[in-house]
């Protein structure tokens, strides 16, 4: 197996010069750098990642903490993070915080102790302990999907990337109202998450825009998981005047469909259904699901870009990037299906605040 000494001899340079080329620790003349790279290629030299990390204080690894197992929405985000990291030569360490604040704090500490260069985290509904830990240790961090607010006196800068939530939710509600529905139920996510708060706000805005009153009995919480969404949907269906249309989100859609099946109800004949979030199998249902599609892979890739920019310039102020969603019109809302989604004009741009 070739060593750094072999590379230096082959290139006709010192071992120190090879080290500077590998670790970018000092400028090297272009022709010298190329000679070293040619020697590495010719000899099949593989750098020692551990030794390199000792020299550069970087491991070229990113820690990712998302509830990918319990929430299939994060699968697309995971793919985006992995693709973005590998493209830049970074490895990925994954941990599942299970949306539990105490477990979240533990897994983030474990990732940090493994000397990852930075973290990408989908925070829980109560991230205070997480924020204190990250701020105390100055860990470069990007939060994704859910927005967080820094505690008072918190001076540590972090970045965030998520989608628009309120306006797309209002779009779903308006569409159902246009179909003649006057009692539109919402199976909302876990209380405390910014996504839940913003989507409820969008739901209320959609009702107001359609001239419909807000009825708190039509809003239940499925806690962003299938298991809780089923009884929550059942509670809506048990009302004296149940909804004629329903909006759900991510994995909660499965729980809602189970509740409908238990009662022998069909979509859209007995109840119209729309979902905030698309998934690979959403078009396998009959009828296919009308959804708001979130750019999960793009969220993950954007999170990696923000993190690498943060690593390169730690003094940057905190940034929040919002990406637009897409309304995908299928048949579960009771309409004839359309082939193409409605894509906002700024779909490829996103917004930075």
Description:
- With 353 residues, the chain is an alpha/beta fold.
- Helices cover 41% and strands 15% of the residues.
- The chain is elongated.
- The strands form 2 sheets. It has a 7-stranded mixed β-sheet with strand order 2-1-3-4-5-11-13, sandwiched between helices. Strands 7-6-8-9-10-12 form a 6-stranded mixed β-sheet, sandwiched between helices.
- The protein starts with a helix and ends with a strand.
- α6 packs parallel to α7 and α8 runs parallel beside α9.
- α7 links the parallel β3 and β4.
- The C terminus is likely disordered.
- The chain contains 12 helices and 13 strands.
Number of helices: 12
Through-space gap between termini: 50 Å
Strand content: 15-25%
What is the C-alpha radius of gyration, as a whole number of Å? Answer: 25 Å
Average pLDDT for all residues: 87
Secondary-structure element series: HHHHEHEHEHEEHEHEHEHEEHEEE
**Helicity, as a percent range:** 40-55%
Shape: elongated
| Class from helix and strand fractions | alpha/beta
Strand order within the widest sheet?
A: 2-1-3-4-5-11-13
Distinctive features:
single chain, 353 residues, alpha/beta, 7-stranded mixed beta sheet, 6-stranded mixed beta sheet, elongated
Task: Give a brief outline of the structure.
The protein has helices spanning 4-11, 15-23, 30-43, 49-56, 73-87, 101-113, 128-137, 166-178, 194-209, 226-237, 252-262, 296-312; strands at 61-65, 91-95, 118-121, 141-144, 159-163, 184-188, 219-221, 245-249, 272-276, 290-293, 320-323, 326-328, 351-352.
């Amino acid at each position: 197996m070739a060593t750094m000494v072999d590379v230096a001899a082959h290139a006709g340079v010192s071992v120190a010069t090879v080290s500077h080329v590998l670790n970018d620790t000092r400028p090297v003349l272009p022709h010298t750098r190329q000679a070293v790279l040619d020697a590495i290629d010719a000899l099949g030299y593989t750098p020692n990642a551990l030794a390199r990390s000792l020299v550069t204080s970087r491991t070229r690894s990113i820690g990712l903490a998302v509830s990918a197992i319990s929430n299939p929405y994060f699968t697309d985000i995971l793919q985006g993070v992995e693709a973005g990291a590998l493209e830049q030569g970074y490895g990925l360490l994954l941990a599942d915080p299970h949306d539990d604040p105490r477990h979240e704090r533990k897994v983030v500490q474990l990732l940090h102790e493994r000397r990852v260069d930075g973290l990408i985290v989908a925070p829980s509904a109560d991230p205070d302990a997480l924020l204190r830990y990250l701020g105390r240790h100055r860990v470069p961090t990007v939060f994704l999907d859910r927005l967080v607010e820094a505690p008072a006196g918190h001076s540590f800068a972090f970045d965030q990337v998520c989608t628009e939530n309120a306006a797309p939710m209002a779009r779903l509600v308006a569409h159902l109202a246009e179909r003649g529905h006057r009692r539109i139920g919402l199976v909302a996510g876990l209380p405390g998450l910014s996504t839940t708060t913003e989507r409820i706000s969008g739901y209320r805005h959609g009702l107001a825009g359609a001239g419909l009153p807000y009825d708190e009995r039509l809003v239940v919480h499925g806690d962003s998981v299938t298991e809780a969404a089923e009884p929550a949907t059942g509670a809506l269906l048990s009302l004296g005047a149940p909804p004629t249309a329903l909006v759900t989100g991510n994995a909660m859609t499965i729980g809602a469909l189970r509740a409908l099946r238990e009662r022998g109800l069909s979509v859209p004949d007995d109840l119209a259904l729309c979902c905030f979030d698309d998934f690979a199998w959403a078009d396998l249902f009959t009828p296919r699901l009308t959804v708001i599609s979130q750019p999960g892979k793009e969220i993950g890739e954007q999170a990696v870009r923000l993190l690498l920019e943060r690593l390169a310039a730690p003094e940057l102020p905190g940034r929040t990037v919002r990406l637009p969603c897409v309304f995908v019109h299928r048949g579960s809302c009771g309409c004839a299906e359309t082939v193409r989604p409605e894509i906002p004009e700024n779909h490829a741009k996103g917004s930075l605040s």
